[in-house]
Amino acid sequence: MIEMNASTLFSFLFAAAFLLGVAALAMLALSSRLRRQSSLPKGEIVYEDASGLAGEILFSKRLGLSGKPDYLLEDQEGGFIPVEVKSGYAPRGDEPYKSHSLQLAAYFFLIEDVLRRPASYGLIRYRDRTLEVANTDERYEELMETIAQMRRLIARGEARRSHDQKRRCAVCSMAHACDERLA
Questions:
Q1: What pTM, to 2 d.p., does this model score?
Q2: Could you give the CA distance from residue 11 to residue 76 in angstroms, rounded to a whole number?
């Protein structure tokens, strides 16, 4: 049995507390650096699926629409900011690709319908820069028109794959159910 006097025990506990404090400061510094590198605005991250490990899928019974944004941030007013991270470069100009804009429109709808919170804008984080996308009535109408068009195509049996890229098929979340997959 090892015997320790009070002085040795105190020194040991002080050294352990000091090391824990140093580790906590290092983790805080790393967290701040990663936050700056991510280009995410200030706000608490309340949902994260960038790692593919998010909890529940946002699902609207009213529209039969589901989705999983990469991040949801809560702003200071209690609203949510969806953030979608893309591996490619941003398009030229100030507008995102149409499909990416529609994806954010779907998240705006899901946030408001399922979570009952406002979402005045969202972000698309490309490899080279971040674009801000406003939640507008026009974007909502475009989403509703696109969903209606998709449903018409499905009902007529005319829905088809929209590309000829094996790489996209290989990482598609619907590959298991697609009879037109390339990979």
A1: 0.73
A2: 44
